Amino acid sequence: MLDKILNYCFTKSKQPVLFKDLLVANSRFNEGLDVDNIKLGYRLKISRTYLVYLFYIMAIGTPVAYLTHKSLATLDTHASIVVSAIFTATVFVFFNFFKVWLQEKMAEKVILEAWILHFPYFEYNEYKNKVEEIFQKAMKEEIVKKDLQRYVLDSLVED
After folding, report:
1. What is the domain partition of the chain in residue ranges?
2. How much is the pTM?
């Protein structure tokens, strides 16, 4: 289900993720930072994201409205207005959380796909931190881009 939502809400490039871009994205993702979606080759379709979010809100909001309708109907008009304003504000605030969550899931999906391409013999969950350490070491040693892949793979094999 999540995969279908991601495919619906994002446009993905057919170009593979470059090795260094994968290493940078992996490092940033492991640190809990935002990754560069342009370098990973995907873009958010905001209108489709609104539609998916609207579907979720309707799926959750309709039963809640049905259950609370009688109690809110008997409330003072002012209290009903305040409750509806709070609900509306909450819906719009949580859209930003939903959008960030979707972007994190898409970044993780693209990183995993690129990982399989560049590191087919190294399982992601087991080696993601080790590759990050090797990449940081390579950056300190100023390894040039053309030798980076060989350096990382040789370091993985040695350990």
Report:
1. 2-158
2. 0.82
